[in-house]
Amino acid sequence: MQRPSLSRTAFLASQASEWLVLLFLLAASTPAILFHHGILTVVPKLNLLDDSWLLDASYKASRGVWFGRDVAFTYGPLFQWLSSVPSRWLGMSMGTTLATWYTLPLYVVVLATFLTARLLLPKVGGWRRAVLVFLAVVFWSAADVRASLCLLAFAVFLRLVDSVAAGKSSIAAGAFVAAAVCVTMFLVAADSGIYAVAALLLCLVFTSIARARISRLAQLLVVSVVGFIALAVAVNAVLASPLNFRFWRSSLAIAAGYRWFEPIAMSKLDKHHLFAILAGGVAVFAYAWLLRKPRGPWTRRPAFLVAGFGFALLMTQSSLVRSDHVHVLMGSYAMIFLGGAILLDEADGPSWIATTLAIIIIVATAILAKPVPVLLPGNVAAQLRQIARPAFSCPPGTQEFDRACFLADDVQLLRSVSGFVDSHAAPNSPIAIFPYQTVFGIASRRDVANGVLQSYLVNGGFLSGLEIAALERTRPGTGVYLPDHLLSQVLDGVPNFTRSPDVWFCYFRHYRAAGNPAPGVLGLSRDDSRDSRIQFVSQVVGTAPATVRISRRSTALDLGALRWPSDGADFLKLRLRVDYPGWWRLRKPSCLTLVMSFADGSRKPIQLVLPPGHVTDIWVYPWDDSGMATYFATDEADWRPRNRPALTGLQLLITPFDWISVVPNRLTVESVEAVRVSLS
């Protein structure tokens, strides 16, 4: 007599479980500061690299400066809006921004994962979707909003295209939704938009084949393209003007340069991780293919299996370029999630099979994966303690600055630089910062004048032009320069001057030294008279132009002895071109290392970045990069330290970053010049 009642109770518990998981994840993602606005944020160590861009992004939003319209960045204006809403509501400060910048994006991760699970597994018991959502958000996703939204876009396109193919939805309505989703994804980030377009194309191609509705879905594609163009023009109108495509050009320029401008090696551990996931993905999709049903559950349909595997394989591109551990997790997430959805979907045979598969997934995840930091049990418990017993003062060993608790050294740095800016710049006037420490903008309550949010993204003529145009348009009277090796990191072994020489020379031409507010920090004051007084004299010091064909995976090229000027020089300029096979666009280039030899027997290696297939001028400061601050002195006699050794030889090493790197076909050295600058 009790069996129906127990069965109904179990059914209700199963259905409620996914909603309970959703509520738990949203609650665990909520920082205590939203409950007690006066809480101070404890910052263990100020990160001048990552903290700079996320703080500057929110501060710019509070000042009406938006990604895409006013400044270019890897993320779009929608992400900037999401990340800045809580801090703008609570009151803009470093503390509120650091505590809340990822709150709404993390909510989006949770909601997008929840919706994706419901779209792909609509008929299974709620407990299966609950397991999928919990494991995906806490363990699999790296809590990345872009990857989560890309998967949601794929699930939406899968259902949408099938509905149009079956005649359940009109072509016009389907095209509008498809175009709106793609445009929205570009507003989140350029790579998200590219992945969304790829997901749409995959779903169109394989659904048209599976349902034999090629003509109808071809019409859907055409109308979707028209709709995308119309919505892109509408986005232009909101950001600037209908025919101003700056947002799209800058987004695609950053995405296009990413592969050659920011590659790093993949560790052996991450390589094994990626291969294991790919092997598991192949096995799971092959298993599902054997059980495929054209009108069965979504994860058993041929269109899903082919398009889904192709999409998951495509998203591993995020792992192949900047191959640190976080990016490997992001790139492999789609394969893990879709594989998990297949295993948790309806299974033929006894119900214990589905239960066993779920247990295996849970156990394997617990053994092999780690929770994302914000959802670690200790961090969630700490947030609960903050809500129950809020702390309104800094703990011992830290000091308060702008509603955050920093180490004393960090507070001293922030106060010193902010004090310099306050004493040299008028209130609300913009400031200039090189290379990337835009944290001093919010610290001094000044806009940082830039066309690209971080200088390490400035590559190629278009993005360099954006950055320099912003400096020329706003003409900041005060600037801050942080030479390498002191408070500036040499990112991926490439000096910041070599990475963005045009921007550095813009500062050099228009600013002079105005003090040292802190060790490793040079204060600058605008001096446009330098531009007309600075002169460049170049002298060829290397061998005749030559093209070398590369046949080995690791190659060392001796560029010969240098005829360094007897009166010295300030910079080395190489005009190079490197050519690769076409498939480098699906992988990544090799690592180019320049090894410089000096008359005193010392050597200095640096890495170079240059776009494949283009002649590029590479600028190098041969000596200690921290000494470049002296070039902003008003007296040329102070620019060069005494007894600086002459440069005597160059060697170029071409080595793979890892197994993904492509070996170049040839390298062309067009010129090697020594450049001396003078101030008349």
* Total DSSP E strands: 16
Residues in β-strands, percent = 5-15%
- Terminus-to-terminus distance: 101 Å
Q: What integer value in Å does the Rg equal?
A: 28 Å
Poorly predicted runs: none
Our count of domains comes out at: 3
Shape: globular
Please give the share of residues in helix: 40-55%
Overall residue-averaged pLDDT value: 93
Count of DSSP H/I helices: 23
Structural class comes to alpha+beta
Question: Mind describing the biggest β-sheet?
Answer: 5 strands, antiparallel
Care to describe what's here?
The chain is α+β, with helices and mostly antiparallel strands. It folds into 3 domains: 3-30 and 102-375, no CATH class; 406-532; 534-679, Jelly Rolls, CATH 2.60.120. Helix content is 51%, strand content 15%. The protein contains 23 helices and 16 strands. The protein has helices at residues 3-28, 50-62, 77-90, 94-100, 103-120, 126-140, 145-165, 171-188, 190-211, 214-239, 246-261, 268-290, 302-315, 317-320, 325-344, 351-368, 377-388, 408-424, 439-444, 460-474, 496-499, 501-510, 529-533; strands spanning 41-42, 398-401, 404-407, 431-434, 478-481, 511-518, 521-526, 534-540, 546-549, 555-561, 571-579, 591-598, 603-608, 616-620, 647-655, 666-679. Strands 8, 9, 11, 14 and 16 form a 5-stranded antiparallel β-sheet that branches. Strands 4-5-7-6 form a 4-stranded mixed β-sheet. A hairpin with a 2-residue loop joins β2 and β3 (404-407). α2 packs across α3.
